[in-house]
Predict the structure.
Amino acid sequence: METTEEIINRVDGSGLITFNLEDYYPKGERIIIDLKDLLFEGLILREKDLRTFIKEHEWTKYQDNNVAINCSVDAVIPTWAYLLLTIALQPYAKKIVYGNIEQLETILFLERLSQLDLEPFKDQRIVIKGCSNIKVPEAAYVEITRLLSPIAKSIMYGEPCSTVPLMKRI
């Protein structure tokens, strides 16, 4: 007599909600404007050179993109330089930040998470998914944990089949 047992997916029946930060990846290309290319003798930024760059640069290539402005070398960059670039970018870029690509990515994720409707997660058992195909900043994991911990029944980290318990409300 041959019996076939039905395979039951206990993860599906567990009532766990998987929160995948990758699903909240902010859209849009990321571009960096590095002022090192505009430095006089690699040391200082001259106002005349920056104003010429702003006047002649093709700003439309930043249309609907996310832009980080910085200087990747140790140089004298006056604050007004970043402000002039921001004004030039404003009509085109979706988001403009001071910093590098990682800082831009963090800011984009944090803004996206700040708009999240948390009601569906109230009193739920949540697994914050650990593995992703997209590099998710650690700050995004911290932020979603901060947002969910006051309302969730429990929070775990990892994959539903192998999690690290983080918090459980009694």
About this structure: The CA atoms of residues 77 and 125 lie 49 Å apart. The first helix runs from residue 47 to 56. Residues 30-93 form one domain. The longest strand covers residues 162-168.
